[in-house]
Amino acid sequence: LITEPTRELAAPDLVEPVIGFREWRLRGDRLLSQHTDVAWEGETMAAECLPGRFSVHRGPGLHADPSPAPDCACGLYACFEPYRRWASSVDWTLIAGAAALWGRIQVHRSGMRAQYARPVVLALPPRLPPKRLQAAKGVSERLGLPLVRFEHLAAAAEEHGRKLPRSLLLA
Ligand SMILES: [Zn+2]
Question: pTM to 2 decimals?
Answer without folding.
Answer: 0.87
